[in-house]
Design brief:
The protein is built from 12 helices and 17 strands. The protein is an alpha+beta fold. The protein has 2 domains: about 210 residues, Isoleucyl-tRNA Synthetase, Domain 1 (Orthogonal Bundle); about 100 residues, Nucleic acid-binding proteins (OB fold (Dihydrolipoamide Acetyltransferase, E2P), Beta Barrel), CATH 2.40.50.140. The strands form 6 sheets. Strands 7, 8, 9, 10, 13, 16 and 17 form a 7-stranded antiparallel sheet that branches. The longest helix has about 30 residues.
Length: about 375
């Protein structure tokens, strides 16, 4: 089995096998091109700043919750969608309500009514459907995993969890546990629930390993692997359960999303404000003559801390320009460089010296930076 991203299927199903054949190496029997995980408005992109990182998700929701979502929410041969609000919804509905709630109330009732001891009691035809589904589920999971239908395999496990929750509603253990109820029947109901949960813990191991460990600790059962799922009755009479703990707490969605937005705002750089500038037409721009010019000489202007006097060659004549960049550049840093010259700027006198043009520079957080051209561009080349 070769597991790859779907955008490189061609390389891994044509070129790579050819290389393997040339080397006499065995070929893959199966190549699975995995779909993409997108966000709600399309693909993730660093340039757009909409990437969701796994480490950040783990800090918010825990490793197993992230594993569950990513494995479960990508249907076979189709792209999946991930977002914080979708993750919260799935954690609340699937992990907290269906899985966590089932484990918590089953162990709680066992502790309440039998001090955590599980034993067979009085059976009922109502038990058969739950037991039959539990015995059938490992085979379904195995078959779906063999064909790489991973989301469907997880669905199989959660179908058993849902059936166990429905079984609670059907048998009403709280009624059986009342004074004058049916203790023998209650004992059987709780045994069936505990054994069903054990089935699910074993099957969840590859997908949510820490959660499976936590469930086994609460049940006080070892992970017997698939071999322990061949019969419904692995847990022996008189087995004592551990204490119940919350597996997945429900998340306050508005509060969590507000927290995520606040943290994102703190880490994101402030977006620059669009400057208000007067629009010009192409005819206006065409009036400006920009040319490549070579700096021949450069020296500070006497009696000025800001101005440098540059002698430049614009390809057909030499010109003198003055530029207020003395605090950012030393003369030797400019001599021999090729700059962008505003060549048709009307001459003006600055501090008594004639300036016959202007060089282009950029304002940056670190100060002014002159725009230099590649030395291969000859002096006089028109910039457009």
């Amino acid at each position: 089995m070769h597991l790859i991203g779907k955008d490189i299927v061609r390389f891994n199903t044509i070129y790579w096998p050819i290389l393997l054949m040339a080397l006499g190496e065995p070929l893959p029997r199966q190549v699975f091109g995995h779909p993409w995980l997108n966000i709600s408005d399309g693909k993730m992109s660093k340039s757009k700043g909409n990437v969701i990182y796994a480490d950040d998700l783990v800090k918010l929701f825990g490793v197993d919750a992230v594993r569950f979502f990513v494995l479960h929410e990508i249907p076979f041969a189709n792209d999946g969608v991930i977002s914080h609000d979708l993750m919260i919804e799935r954690i609340n509905s699937e992990l907290a309500n269906i899985l966590g709630n089932l484990v918590n109330r089953t162990i709680s009732m066992s502790q309440k009514y039998f001090d955590g001891k599980v034993c067979h009691g009085k059976s009922d035809p109502l038990d058969n459907e739950l037991i039959a589904l539990a015995l059938k589920t490992p085979k379904q999971v195995y078959e779906h995993m063999e064909s790489m239908h991973i989301a469907d395999a997880i669905d199989d496990i959660f179908a058993l969890l849902r059936r166990a929750n429905k079984y609670i509603d059907e048998t009403e253990p709280w009624v059986l546990g009342r004074e004058g109820g049916d203790s023998e029947r209650l004992s059987e109901v709780l045994y069936n629930l505990v054994e069903s949960i054990r089935f699910c813990a074993v099957l969840l191991g590859p997908f949510m390993p820490q959660t499976a460990i936590d469930i086994h600790e609460q049940l006080q059962t070892p992970d017997g692997g698939l071999d322990s799922l061949t019969q419904f009755g692995y847990i022996k009479d008189g087995h004592v359960l551990g204490q119940n703990k919350i597996l997945f707490a429900r998340i306050d969605a508005p509060k969590m999303l507000e927290q995520i937005a606040a943290e994102k705002a703190e880490t994101e750089p402030e977006k620059p404000i669009k400057p208000e500038v007067e629009e010009i037409k192409i005819d206006d721009f065409a009036k400006v003559s920009l040319r490549a010019a070579k700096v021949i000489s450069c020296e500070p202007l006497k009696k000025s801390d800001k101005l440098l006097v540059l002698s430049v060659d614009n390809g057909y004549e030499k010109k003198q320009i003055l530029s207020g960049i003395a605090q950012y550049y030393k003369p030797e840093q400019l001599i021999g460089k090729t700059i962008v010259l505003v060549d048709n700027l009307a001459p003006a006198k600055l501090r008594g010296e004639l300036s016959e043009g202007m060089l282009l520079a950029s304002d940056t957080p670190d100060g002014v930076q002159v725009l230099f051209l590649d030395d291969s561009i000859p002096a006089g080349s028109k910039i457009r």
